[in-house]
Design brief:
Alpha-Beta Plaits, 3 domains, globular, 6-phosphogluconate dehydrogenase C-terminal fold, 5-stranded parallel β-sheet, 12 strands, alpha/beta, 15% strand, Rossmann fold
């Protein structure tokens, strides 16, 4: 029987706890969170066995854990590590779920915890935060990066990798600095770009026409700008060096593209778009990434009364849940007048098959 400890039950911590409960129903899960409402929700749902409301409870309830998950902001770790050090045994794996690793490893070394610590980063998420948005399937088919220390044994790393696989995620081993450079490029920089673009449009949208005609394409590439502002401030500061390197490279790339445009370099612009398309098209869709995926379907719909209701009824007849539905007024880049968003890929594919059967012209995004 597994014994698991959690410090923090937000989106990722809550999803991890729910996934463990799903795959290991007999496990003992004890959790601490500063939000009593979160703890009570997890307890009443049967996700956790014991609610810890003070760090003084750690010594009693975190003894002999197989895994201890730190799921709070990285800057709060020093507050908990002295208490955790008292309860760690040789067989306990201390880990975290933060999206920056180098600074965390430095803290673990400072507290003398290199032997027990293996950094963890489940590469799944959402624009929404908090336990109320957590899910027992959020980590399914998501990469789960593990960053061992120089003192991590092969036995520990293998055990953690097997555990990650057992809850449906995909373990990947990286050095802390390599991890930080990767996520700076594919996660942290995109959040800065998305927010910069939204701020630019907001600044220039004096008559609010841009807001009115903003197409789905604009909303798609800027969707992550709706993420938690405080969290992203903290992440950027924690990964400052790697992010500055990527930001400089991106700015340099923009300047080169600007030069091509100002010089009327048609071949250069074509190569710019073609190379991006080639690499983008090579990215697999078989696993989740760190930026939450949307499951969208576009449907050609005649302008007639009750058209949307008919589509919704067809989907409801097969118990296919719709997350969001609406008419696209700007369809420069989107095929179809009706956009439907689903909760998962299975629902998306079932809807595509069903609506096609009913002679609708549909396309998945």
């Amino acid at each position: 029987m597994l014994k698991i400890g959690f410090i923090g039950l937000g989106l990722i911590g809550g999803s991890l706890a729910k996934s463990i409960r799903l795959h290991y129903p007999d496990s003992v899960i004890n959790a601490f969170d500063i939000d009593n409402t979160t703890l009570m929700s997890a307890y009443t749902e049967g996700v956790v066995n014991t609610m810890l409301q003070d760090v003084s409870d750690f010594e009693k309830h975190f003894q002999n854990c197989d895994y201890l998950f730190l799921c709070t902001p990285v800057e709060s770790f020093p507050k908990f590590l002295p208490e955790l050090k008292k309860v760690l045994t040789d067989h306990t794996i201390l880990t975290d779920v933060g999206s920056v690793k180098s600074c965390v490893h430095k803290e673990m070394e400072r507290f003398g915890l290199n032997q027990q610590f293996i950094g963890g980063h489940p590469m799944a998420g959402s624009e929404k935060s908090g336990y109320q948005n957590s899910s027992d399937i959020l980590l399914e088919n998501a990469f789960f990066i593990l960053t061992p220390t120089p003192e991590t044994s092969e036995k520990q790393l293998t055990a953690y990798s097997n555990f990650v696989e057992s809850i449906g995620a995909i373990p990947l081993h990286l050095a802390p600095a390599e991890h930080d450079r990767v996520v700076a490029a594919i996660s942290h920089l995109p959040h800065i770009i998305a927010s910069s673009l939204v701020n630019l449009v907001c600044q220039e949208d004096t008559d609010e026409y841009m807001r009115k005609v903003a197409a789905g394409g604009f909303k798609d590439i800027t969707r992550i700008a709706s993420s938690n502002s405080q969290m992203w401030q903290n992440i950027c500061m924690a990964n400052q060096d790697a992010l500055l390197e990527m930001l400089d490279l991106f700015i340099d790339g923009l300047q080169k593209t600007r030069t091509k445009l100002s010089e009327g370099n048609k071949d250069g612009l074509f190569s710019f778009f073609a190379s991006a398309k080639k690499y983008r098209d090579s990215i697999p869709n078989t696993s989740k990434g760190i930026i939450h995926k949307s499951f969208l379907l576009h449907c050609e719909l005649p302008d007639e009364a009750g058209g949307i209701a008919v589509v919704a009824t067809i989907l409801a007849s097969k118990a296919i849940n719709i997350k969001n539905i609406g008419i696209l007024n700007n369809r420069e880049t989107e095929p179809g007048a009706l956009q439907i968003e689903f909760y998962d890929e299975v629902s998306l594919l079932e809807a595509h098959k069903l609506l096609t059967k009913h002679h609708y012209t549909v396309e998945c995004s």
